[in-house]
Amino acid sequence: MNQKHFFGPVKYHRKFNNPFESEDILEQLKQFLKSAEIWDRKYLSAAKEAITALSPTEEIAERRIRKYLSEDRLEKLNLANSYSRALFRHHLLLAASELENDLYQAGRVVMMATFVDQSWAFPDHEIEFDFKAAKQKIRNAFAGMDYIGAFEPAVYPDEVLTTESGTGSLVSFHAHVIVWSTSESKLRRHKLKIAKRFTPLVGDEGLSFPRLDNLKTIPEFRKSLRYASKMPVDGYERVEENDEISQRHANLENVHYYRLTGFLHHHTIFEAWFAGGEGSQILKSAKTLSIEIAKAKSKSLSDGLGAFNSVRIRDRRRWPNRY
Questions:
Q1: Backbone conformation region of residue 96, classed left if phi is above 0, alpha if psi is from -120 to 50, else beta
Q2: How many domains does the chain have?
Q3: Residue 151: which of 32, 41, 7, 322 has the closest Cα?
Q4: 112, 134, 142, 196: which could form a disulfide with 213 (CB 3.0–4.6 Å)?
């Protein structure tokens, strides 16, 4: 089967073909990230609606939204917080801009590798994805290479997965990894070497991972980083047509956002990201600056909230995933 469109980045219609120029890099970056901010707002709205609808009481819903999704919790840099993601994304693109011109010199090639593995699939009521183990699996596959990447969950609302704990909608984690080397043939040979380490989902046995997509230009490199850092807004459905497997967006319901946010808020952005070789410098810089700026912003917001924070009631109840 052909896997041409499987887990491919969403196509953006906005064109951004000029490199960031030092004299107005922040303004250019701001414009470039506008599409990602649309995804952030959609996710935030959907997550708030889900928490409001499914929390036991209105008071608990308000506390959860404030604790996990609000801008004044930016410093926690948790995966469910769109403000934290936006901050990290900003510094990720800035850090990458320091290296991108070198990446596109003659004799180098940049590709997006997408990984899926059967052990990364869970029912949405019992998500037990182990970021540490999954990252080590990728590191082992790319040992000695230059790369940066992240894991993200894909929810398939109309596909069910049954385990000992019950049945729920399929949540399949996958990794988007930007990798660079001296030639495309070298990367494609490496793909064949490591493919057996990754088992496709049930029903996708004809597919081979990692899938490789050539990032031929600097704008494509930037868009891939932007895509890998987006919030999980839409669900997906798998479609087979003319012996080709593809996937398209599908709508999620409140229960899907509620359960997904219930998992994500336990983890930081940095648990989902990983890098090796030259990519480690990009991630290290983005992480350091994100933490520094998040602390400063959180302090500013906290000072502004004043007495409100001093009387905030802490929600100590466990976040339920099952109904």
A1: alpha
A2: 1
A3: 7
A4: 112
